Amino acid sequence: MWLTSIETIFRYMKCPEDQKVQCTIFFLKDRGTDWWETAERMLGGDASKITWEQFKENFYAKFFSANV
């Protein structure tokens, strides 16, 4: 899965926790970008207001069924 691959990259590159959301949004495309732009507006344009864990929870809730 895409997000698992991103986390593997972060682990090997020792990406700091507070930079993971910013790095991930750079790689979003199409529906992912649309979703993030909406989420970012709700955060007042400040991506630092969301933690990596919150980002992942919201990402999975939006793009994956609860049955998966």
UniProtKB/TrEMBL annotation:
- Highest taxon, organism lineage: Eukaryota
Q: Which GO terms describe its molecular function?
A: peptidase activity
Q: Which UniProt keywords apply?
A: Hydrolase, Protease
Q: Which GO terms describe its biological process?
A: proteolysis
Name of the protein:
Gag protease polyprotein
User: From what organism does this protein derive?
Assistant: Cucumis melo var. makuwa (Oriental melon)
